[in-house]
Design the sequence.
């Protein structure tokens, strides 16, 4: 039986998605390296004015940023250098990391920006951060691992720190991630961008932090003291 071109592409995409989420670290790295070397991601090599940047500026707090799935260093080279003190980018692809390092050198940011080649499914940071970022990378985890991974990384937030997630196809394939975040975390900011994509998918940004103890334990002493309103940032939603 001969498959049509459309069916072959569909099959190839399914296999690619499966490898990106579920394969061994080595196989994932091989695939991402091949894609970065082959130019598949050249179209996002530079993203000035991305809709996520105002949120990074707002929540970086002049402090430490951890960027999981940092790619070729867009965020660390495009946000104003003054809005953060130090930046750690983690990516599974050596090719992406090499490009990010070169870009930071060229931009005179190598004192602030550092990059590590690692799988964020297992990476263990050695510090605390004001802002942890998953910019178009969280959905490369198997769906069942999204919640434990967010929970694990949220322990590396400084008091008042936030996680920011950027997701394409907000209302489609990424909807379960949005719903999980809304259910489990204190959402402090949210933004939907009209990208005018041909397939009319929407990009969304969600900023959140761990629920305060008082929210988790209604009736606890701290809940009674602050009326359950001890979140570090006032919620605001921009649609
Ligand atoms: C769509 S690109 C986004 C890159 C960058 N965040 C940006 O927005 O420009 C996804 C990135 O996530 C990285 N990635 C995917 N799975 C990963 C994993 N398990 N651990 C670390 N990085 C991963 C890829 O290598 C790739 O650079």
Sequence:
């Amino acid at each position: 039986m001969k498959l049509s071109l459309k069916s072959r592409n569909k099959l190839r995409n399914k296999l690619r998605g499966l490898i990106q989420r579920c394969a061994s670290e080595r196989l994932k790295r091989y695939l991402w390296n091949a894609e970065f070397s082959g130019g598949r991601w050249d179209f996002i090599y530079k993203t000035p004015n991305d809709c996520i940047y105002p949120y990074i500026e707002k929540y970086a707090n002049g402090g430490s940023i951890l960027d999981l799935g940092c790619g070729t260093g867009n965020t660390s080279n495009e946000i104003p250098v003054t809005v953060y003190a130090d930046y750690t980018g983690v990516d599974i692809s050596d090719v992406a990391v090499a490009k990010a390092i070169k870009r930071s050198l060229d931009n005179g940011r190598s004192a602030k920006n550092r990059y590590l080649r690692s799988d964020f499914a297992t990476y263990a940071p050695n510090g605390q951060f004001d802002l942890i970022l998953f910019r178009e990378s969280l959905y490369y985890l198997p769906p069942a691992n999204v919640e434990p991974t967010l929970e694990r990384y949220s322990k590396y937030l400084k008091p008042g720190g936030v996680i920011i997630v950027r997701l394409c196809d907000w209302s489609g394939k990424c909807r379960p991630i949005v719903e999980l975040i809304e259910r489990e975390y204190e959402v402090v900011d949210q933004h939907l961008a009209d990208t005018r994509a041909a397939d009319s998918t929407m990009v969304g940004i969600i900023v959140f932090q761990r629920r305060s103890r008082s929210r988790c334990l209604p009736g606890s002493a701290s809940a009674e003291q602050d009326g359950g309103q001890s979140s570090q940032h006032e919620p605001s939603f921009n649609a």
Observations:
- Residues 48 and 78 are 6 Å apart (CA to CA).
- Residues 215-239 have pLDDT under 50 and may be disordered.
- The radius of gyration is 19 Å.
